[in-house]
Amino acid sequence: MLQAGLVTGLLSACGSEVFKAIPTPVAAPGKTPVSTPNAGVTDLSRNRPPAAVRNGYTPAVEVEHGNRGSANVVLSFQGSGDARIARDMLHEAERAHVRVTVLAVGTWLLAHPFIAHRILHGGHELGNQTYSHPADLARLSPDAAYEEIARCATVLRKLTGTPGTWFRTTGSPHASNMVLTQAGRAGYAHCLSYDVETTDWTDPGAAHIVAAVDKVQHGSVISLHLGHAGTLAALPQILDHLRQKGLTPVTAGEMFGLT
Fold this sequence. Notes:
alpha/beta; 9 strands; globular; 13% strand; disordered N terminus
């Protein structure tokens, strides 16, 4: 069992790394080009900070959806809750040959250290949704917000060797400028938002979750949560619904050309 003491210290390099905005990717032969902030499409957050580098590091750039001309969508899950249900959720996705993006809470990863490798072993993508999931990250001081992000990044590094590509804030679909700045300070160039909210974390029942996904569009990023029985029950219907609309679930990295 991994001891929490191994991951409580922050890496000194976190505050000194400089990342550039998402590069314009070149689509692989036979694949649909993906959208990026540099491509001039509408997947930029409404909260994007000025492009200038602040205090020696570049604020993260937030995206909420991909190219509306693409048939791809992203199933993004908060990594928290009942680990047994989370494992069953991953199995259900894999049974349908679907890969998802998990933004994990650091304390959850420490409590269930096997789960990080289980996510990656299934071909899924793993990122950062803070260390302890404060109710609203934007309400913390800049240093406290940075510590939440950087501490989870350290857990991810210890468990998997990498902090992951994506960070997601708490308390709101969109990160504030302060949070984007602190995410950049912690080494993240990319903040993943979403344009389809299912409110599955309130346990409204499978039917409500499936109905919420009906708002999906080409290029959508859908917000879901691991560890909730209602979401697990809804997932097969969600996947069928997406197929009927001609939509293909991919990871966020695949959507935005960051694989």
